[in-house]
């Protein structure tokens, strides 16, 4: 009897160890390439997913509401243009090194020295480590959204980077392939064109739930048909936001979930204001009035209740400082378009408008074809160009190489309008993927500077309202629609930050904080 009892106990133990409760859980998702792992160079959506899981920041957006809460910081205080942050004393990097104030200073200085990614958010800022757990930021001039900007300052393990950098002053080679953060997930392998694999960090200072994915496989550049097949076969969990609407619809009809992340940005057709004929404001206004806004929104509808877009009311998305009311919905007006075209200094018969779309975002080809049809209604010829993301980013670095019209999605990278609009329109920031307009307008600059320096919400509202009016007057951009990100997902995963508004962060990409997700059995 004793022998049988021991055998039974052994069988029970073996069964328990092999049961789903003990099996490794793997979350599989995809995004558009390229996945930039260096925190000082990260700027787009895929990069954001990496940053918000491998690294941490001093503050986080408040879930389900406005404002920010402490994260790596325990608290902070403000005295004019001086911000003092007290750090938590229970945080270690994934290397085992303790978090210190000097890591914060190093992270800021490294970002500023490289001058890449979103470093412009922290221009004119200096930092000092007062002691191991107190860091003081000093601003050269008032900057209203400074605390919000800190969600884009991932804190780097200075000691680790210094040990691994070799002859590379800022450890760029090391950090392009390895993580050096405090985040809830560690990088186990990284190929920026194919896949990044991450594993749960058991030493995370906030802990990571047992039901959170053990391993995450973030793949880049998967074809829409591939994603649809993989999800249908139970071999993929969350799609990118760039699937064509009919694929999203088909997946939803087959039982997939639809996650969403309310956007703080829009779909734009950006006009190169330095290249004839779009150096003439009347020509730009003609194109802006010719675009078929309503059809564009219909093209991104997924179900009767879910869509990737809502009507734009102007240059600033609804919900931000300076946004116009719902009575200002953008609509096609071919009669006005013809009037502006007749006032343009260039002959429409001689025009050939280059319209680019990003190869990795096939939905954009449809908008390009729609716009081409709209232009033909004005008697204007156009040419559509398909550009891979890397080539597009390279071409727009020079105005002469930038297409007449560049289709692009842009978001407020901190949730604040400054980080949506300053990088697009201030004359000091031309030639990035966000700013192929090459706009140089003193009134626009003045409104943007006022939005940064204002001391009250009322002053910021006034500044951005003035900016909105000016941008609509000079039309550097066609504001296609305000957007939100929609993702098709298997039923193996729960993501409250992507499905429950009371848990949403209000910041693109942060809904993909894997530590807050749950892997479940279907």
Put the structure in a nutshell.
This protein has helices at residues 2-18, 45-54, 101-114, 146-149, 158-164, 172-175, 224-232, 245-253, 281-290, 293-298, 334-343, 363-377, 389-395, 417-425, 442-453, 457-474, 496-499, and strands spanning 26-31, 59-61, 68-70, 73-79, 82-87, 125-131, 134-139, 185-191, 195-200, 215-220, 257-271, 309-310, 352-358, 381-387, 405-411, 477-489, 493-494, 518-519.
Order of strands, main sheet, comes to: 12-16-11-15-13-14
**Percent of residues in β-strands:** 15-25%
- Report the C-alpha radius of gyration, rounded: 24 Å
Total number of beta strands: 18
* Overall 3D form: globular
In helices, the fraction of residues equals 25-40%
Output the number of helix runs: 17
Distance between the termini: 40 Å
Main beta-sheet annotation: 6 strands, mixed
The level 1 CATH classification of the largest domain is Alpha Beta
pLDDT averaged residue by residue: 92
Q: Please state the structural category.
A: alpha+beta
CATH superfamily of the largest domain: Periplasmic binding protein-like II
**Number of self-contained structural domains:** 2
